[in-house]
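Students often ask why we bother encoding 3D structure as a string. The short answer is that it lets us treat folding as translation between two languages. Here is a chain of 123 residues written in the first language.
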Amino acid sequence: MIKILLVDDEIITRKTLSLALAREGYDVVAAEDGSHAIRLLKKYTPDVVVTDIIMPERNGIEVILEIKRNYPSIRVIAISGGGRLNANTHLNIARDLGVAAIMLKPIKLDELKIAIENCLLGF
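And here it is in the second language, the structure alphabet:
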């Protein structure tokens, strides 16, 4: 079963996407912020991490850097709704760090599934 770590501080987004992905057959573990995600990475090795960028504690950029440094085989999808800067600014930073895909919120499940499958295929 494909393992997904979903990281988002917005409870509605986190729960909605977690349930939707689980219904699609993915093994989903969710984290409410970057610190929680990094702790989970030590016990749960996902195939793909879907992380929001703007979060309390550690933000998504810090999560991406941690994954790139310590878990280079894990593919990352960065998502953002904006924050104080334009969402594209945050996502472009994530792209420059080498994430597999970027997506603007609100996330469409079909598009997320395609991004996950592309990650698994190495795109």
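Translate back mentally: The chain is about 45% helix and 20% strand. Keep this in mind for the problem set.
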